[in-house]
């Protein structure tokens, strides 16, 4: 959906309808945040599968992942819309080309908080999960090598 909205964004912004442009910008923002949220949930799942292998039963795990994956971005978008719905709009980059218009976040502070900071937090979390998984794999490898040396003796 992120790709579909992104690819049709310029065409839809050419209609010069403020409501349509706000809707497209909100959808683009939502699906971008949802994609990164699901990426974060994948890293949590990776951690649970490779580090916390045993006794990791989470009741209604998929339902909780779906609520987080689709709900957290919806909360962020709702907050932005509640604070100021005019944060979204039509931005033009060139007067000569009508398809250079793009519906997106118009205020820099909203962009930096709701996109850049959000992605940065997810990047930090994914990096922490990745390092933890690598350390776990390395410790399993070293234990296996010690056992094989003992068996060879």
From TrEMBL:
Keywords: Membrane, Transmembrane, Transmembrane helix
Superkingdom of this protein's organism: Eukaryota
GO CC, one annotated term: plasma membrane
Mode of membrane association: Multi-pass membrane protein
One GO term of the biological process aspect: cell surface receptor signaling pathway
GO molecular function: G protein-coupled receptor activity
Subcellular location: Membrane
InterPro entries: GPCR_2-like_7TM, GPCR_2_secretin-like
Stretches assigned to the G-protein coupled receptors family 2 profile domain: 1-153
Membrane-spanning parts: 20-41, 61-83, 109-137
Name recorded for this polypeptide: AGRG4 protein
């Amino acid at each position: 959906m992120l790709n579909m909205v992104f690819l049709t964004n310029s065409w839809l912004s050419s209609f010069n309808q403020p409501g349509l442009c706000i809707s497209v910008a909100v959808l683009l923002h939502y699906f971008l945040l949802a994609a990164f949220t699901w990426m974060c949930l994948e890293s949590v799942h990776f951690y649970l599968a490779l580090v916390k292998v045993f006794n990791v039963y989470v009741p209604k795990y998929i339902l909780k992942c779906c609520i987080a994956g689709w709900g957290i971005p919806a909360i962020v978008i709702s907050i932005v819309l509640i604070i100021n719905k005019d944060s979204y709009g039509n931005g033009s980059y060139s007067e000569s080309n009508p398809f250079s218009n793009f519906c997106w976040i118009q205020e820099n502070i909203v962009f930096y908080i709701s996109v850049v900071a959000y992605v940065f937090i997810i990047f930090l979390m994914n990096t922490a999960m990745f390092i933890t998984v690598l350390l776990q794999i390395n410790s399993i490898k070293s234990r296996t090598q010690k056992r094989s040396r003992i068996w060879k003796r």
